[in-house]
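Incident log, structure service

09:12 report received: a user says their structure output differs between two submissions of the same chain.
09:20 pulled the input from the user's history:
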Amino acid sequence: MKFTAIIEKGTDGMYSIYVDGMKDHGLYGSGQTVENAKEDMMAALAEMVAMYRDNGNKLPKELDNPMFVYKYDIASIFNYFDWINASQVAKKSGINPSLMRQYKSGIALASERQLTKIQETLNCLGRELSAATCV
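09:34 re-ran on a clean worker, output below:
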């Protein structure tokens, strides 16, 4: 089954991840980085699966090799994909680089309009990278 995992940076600076749409289970993770939060979530999933198997219970379908589609807030996306330059994304998006750094750090929250600009720029980057070949 496929689920959406939402990643956000909290006011305490920690990253949290929660899975939306699981009918009978709550799946969460947290950490000092997005990678740590993902690892924590996957460890929690492994513990749930082990609990079912250790008790001889049938594994629910939603816990049997779930797939995750990740949704990131701005701070989380720049933490996880740390090779993406926020100032350059801002420039290509038509957003003030200083404002983008505030979004990245969590000091300011982007409006829906700004989020759309950033999303379109990142999608464009993805398409350009997909079209590139190494020789």
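09:41 both user submissions now match this output. Likely a transient worker issue. Closing.
09:42 reviewer note: DSSP finds five helices and four strands in the chain. Helices lie at 34-54, 74-80, 86-93, 97-105, 112-131.
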